[in-house]
């Protein structure tokens, strides 16, 4: 047993090799859910050496894009209900999308309904601009977020 891990034995899925685009219903300058999923699926979990895709924290179905309103919604599912890393995972998702997307998109990041004991609190924190900026200005949190986002590049 590994000491210090909240979920010492997560369920790990096989990594998908390639993503197949569905019928293109999005305008030329817009994004589609598969593109967004492709941006975030390789983010490493802050607690385990696996990606969010491998742990099924994010999936293709968890991304919604409304190009007419320029809104993106990502719901993620922590591996356990009392996951202490849910806020970090949300910060990683937000930081990665901020890096990859045009500024005009409104991004909402939420934990899947019923998947976390502090769902309301986590959702509120992840979608409060001031809290997100403050968290990402913290050098220790920023380093952890960067390690998760760029783990395959380090």
Write the layout of secondary structure elements.
Blueprint lengths: L32 H8 L22 E4 L4 E6 L9 H15 L5 E6 L7 H8 L2 H9 L1 H11 L5
Parallel strand pairs: 2-3
Antiparallel strand pairs: 1-2
Family: Belongs to the MIP18 family.
InterPro entries: FSCA_dom_sf (IPR034904), MIP18 (IPR039796), MIP18-like (IPR002744)
Protein name: Protein AE7-like 1
Summary?
By secondary structure, this protein is an alpha+beta fold. The chain has helices spanning 33-40, 86-100, 119-126, 129-137, 139-149; strands spanning 63-66, 71-76, 106-111.
Alpha carbon gyration radius: 15 Å
Report the strand count: 3
**Unreliable stretches covering 5 or more consecutive residues:** none
Mean residue pLDDT: 86
How is the CATH topology named? GMP Synthetase, Chain A, domain 3
Classified in CATH, the superfamily is Fe-S cluster assembly (FSCA)
Give the CA-based shape. Answer: globular
> Which architecture would the CATH scheme give at its second level?
2-Layer Sandwich
| Number of structurally distinct domains | 1
Q: Which CATH class is shown?
A: Alpha Beta
Helical content (DSSP H or I, runs of 4+): 25-40%
Strand content: 5-15%
Total helical elements: 5
Distance N to C terminus: 27 Å
Helix- and strand-based class? alpha+beta
Spatially, the strands of the biggest sheet line up as 1-2-3
SSE string, helix = H, strand = E?
A: HEEHEHHH
Largest sheet report: 3 strands, mixed
Protein name: Protein AE7-like 1
InterPro entries: FSCA_dom_sf, MIP18, MIP18-like
Function: May play a role in chromosome segregation through establishment of sister chromatid cohesion. Unable to complement ae7 mutants, and thus probably not involved in the cytosolic iron-sulfur assembly (CIA) pathway.
Family: Belongs to the MIP18 family.
